Amino acid sequence: MFTTPRRVLPNLACLLCKQASRTPVCQWCADDIQWLAPPGEGENLLLKPDIATAVAHSHIHALKAAAWYSWPFDSLIHALKFSHKFTLADYLCDAFLQQYPVNQTSLPDLLLPVPMTYRRYWQRHYNQAVEICKALAAKYQLRWEPQWAQRTDNRLQHTLGREARKQHAQQAYCLQPLTSWQTGSPPLRVAIIDDVVTTGQTVNNLAAALKAQWPSMVIEVWTMGITPAPGQRRC
């Protein structure tokens, strides 16, 4: 059973049920989260047929996540993404860390957050993938690079269906040629960071762009939640 992180945080109520809580999510709500594995037993989710068949991963070596993107975990991610609940980035990453402990995880050289459009950034003033990436980098003591790619399409992923996401992702991103890590020796192993993986098209196409320049690079995807495919919905 997942253990709610015990570090005292400056909130007085659970963000889900609003009951008194010294953590962003109380233990009762945490017990309702559908974790993908028990604590310390996270694995490469591409080894699970129900996930591998639903997620594009032709350029990805490993996929790691904390929980299914369903109630109440989806509400936590949504609050971080749209309601400026930055405390949740730390909570979500604690959940990821409990499934993939430092001493049991082969760590990448660099973390790369999925970018968003400039228009969306100036509307929201932050990128939730960057907030998650910063928290993960601090917990795993890893380097991260925020300006490694640029999103060129203004359409919003969460407004598109699965087929539309596939077509959209193929031309939505381009690598930035002048970032500091690209001017020297590239890292051998990287992890692309996102809040949710639904079809995998976005992260797979970002991975394809990296592999086009560095074919030997090992690319993982670290995400907080995975959306069950149609027909695999969890109750």
Structure described in brief:
The protein is α/β, with parallel strands linked by helices and 235 residues long. The protein is 32% helix and 16% strand.
Indicate the topology.
Layout: H1 27-30, H2 49-52, E1 62-68, H3 73-82, H4 87-99, E2 110-113, H5 118-124, H6 128-140, E3 143-144, E4 149-151, H7 162-169, E5 173-175, H8 180-183, E6 189-197, H9 201-213, E7 218-226
Parallel strand pairs: 1-7, 2-3, 2-6, 6-7
Antiparallel strand pairs: 4-5
Helix pairs in contact: 3-4, 4-6
What report would you give on this structure?
This protein is of the alpha/beta class and 235 residues long. It has one domain (36-226): Rossmann fold. It is built from nine helices and seven strands. It has helices at 27-30, 49-52, 73-82, 87-99, 118-124, 128-140, 162-169, 180-183, 201-213, and strands at residues 62-68, 110-113, 143-144, 149-151, 173-175, 189-197, 218-226. The protein has a five-stranded parallel sheet with strand order 1-7-6-2-3, sandwiched between helices. A two-stranded antiparallel sheet has the order 4-5. Strand 6, helix 9 (201-213) and strand 7 form a beta-alpha-beta unit. The longest helix has 13 residues, at 87-99. The radius of gyration is 17 Å and the shape is globular. The mean pLDDT is 86.
